[in-house]
């Protein structure tokens, strides 16, 4: 599977990439973005990779910034429209997660409970609990997501 991901033959869910980054003891952003690391992160929209991943996972995402000196990684998750959403199994990952619904509406399936979130709504939760963004309609949604690596 790792070989297929490396060679672009298979797309990996953020949860899978998170587990790989955890096993390698590197930030998730290192896997999502391959630019050199500095202590100032400027990322003009025109220079940002617009979407990573495949819609058959139920979402795609764009990494907003990466940093070795921070335990947070912001991204925008593009939730696939309802009729195209093929993902039904919740994800888990090691990072806590803060979300802010930028556009549209989603159901946040979290630890077997379903929560309806609209534009402007937020949530903060443990990534180790099973969770999934489910689109409400065929307009899809955009969700600002901030992954926060725990400090132990």
UniProtKB/TrEMBL annotation:
Q: Which domain of life is it from?
A: Bacteria
Task: Spell out the InterPro entries in the cross-references.
Answer: Cro/C1-type_HTH, Cupin_2, Lambda_DNA-bd_dom_sf, RmlC-like_jellyroll, RmlC_Cupin_sf, TransReg_Diox_bact_type
State the UniProt keywords alphabetically: DNA-binding
> Do the record's keywords include DNA-binding?
yes
Check the record and name the Pfam families matching this protein: Cupin_2, HTH_3
Cross-referenced PROSITE patterns, in alphabetical order? HTH_CROC1
Q: Which Gene3D superfamilies match?
A: Jelly Rolls, lambda repressor-like DNA-binding domains
Residues in HTH cro/C1-type domain copies:
1-31
The cellular component terms of Gene Ontology attached to this UniProt record, alphabetical and capped at eight, are: cytosol
GO MF assignments: DNA binding; DNA-binding transcription factor activity
| PANTHER family for the chain | HTH-TYPE TRANSCRIPTIONAL REGULATOR, METHYLPHOSPHONATE SYNTHASE
This chain belongs to the protein called DNA-binding protein
């Amino acid at each position: 599977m790792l070989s297929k991901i490396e060679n672009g033959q298979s797309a990996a869910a953020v949860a899978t990439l998170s587990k790989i980054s955890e096993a390698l003891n590197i930030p998730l952003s290192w896997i999502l973005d391959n630019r050199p690391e500095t202590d100032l992160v400027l990322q003009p929209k025109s220079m940002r990779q617009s979407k990573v991943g495949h819609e058959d996972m139920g979402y795609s995402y764009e990494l907003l910034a990466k940093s070795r000196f921070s335990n947070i990684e912001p991204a925008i998750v593009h939730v696939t429209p309802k009729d195209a959403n093929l993902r039904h199994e919740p994800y888990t990952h090691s990072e806590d997660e803060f979300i802010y619904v930028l556009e549209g509406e989603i159901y946040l399936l979290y630890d077997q409970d379903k929560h309806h979130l609209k534009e402007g709504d937020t949530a903060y939760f443990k990534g180790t609990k099973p969770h999934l963004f489910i689109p409400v309609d065929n307009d899809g949604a955009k969700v600002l997501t901030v992954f926060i690596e725990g400090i132990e």
